[in-house]
Amino acid sequence: MKHILVVDDEKHICELYRSELEDEGYAVTIAHSGIEALEKVESDPPDLVVLDIQMPGMDGIETLEKLLGRDKGIPVILNTAYSHYKDDFTTWGADAYVVKSSDTTVLKQEIKRLLGDES
């Protein structure tokens, strides 16, 4: 079973993604901050990270840089409500960029693509 780490300070987004991704057969761990995400990656490395950008404290871009500095092998999907970040070169280290939506179809497609689970 593939393990996904969802990092978002919005609890309702975390619960929506947990429910949707567990229905797809993934094990899901939640972190509500960049610091918590880095601790979880260190203790139990996931197969993929879904990472919000706008978070208090350490934002998603700084978290992405630290993740890439530790392990370039873990795919990261930046997931944000702000589409303009896609043009920001600091986000280019991510493997995919998905604009947040209550419709998780695109997010699930990107997860499947990055984990090689496409049918």
From TrEMBL:
Keyword set includes Transcription regulation: yes
Residues covered by the Response regulatory domain: 3-115
UniProt keyword annotations, A-Z: DNA-binding, Phosphoprotein, Transcription, Transcription regulation, Two-component regulatory system
GO biological process: phosphorelay signal transduction system
GO terms of molecular function: DNA binding
SUPFAM superfamilies hit by this protein: CheY-like
Gene3D superfamilies per UniProt: 3.40.50.2300
Pfam families in alphabetical order: Response_reg
4-aspartylphosphate: residues carrying this PTM: D52
InterPro entries membership: Bact_response_regulator, CheY-like_superfamily, Sig_transdc_resp-reg_receiver
Name the record gives this protein: Response regulator with CheY-like receiver, AAA-type ATPase, and DNA-binding domains
Organism expressing this protein natively: Desulfomonile tiedjei (strain ATCC 49306 / DSM 6799 / DCB-1)
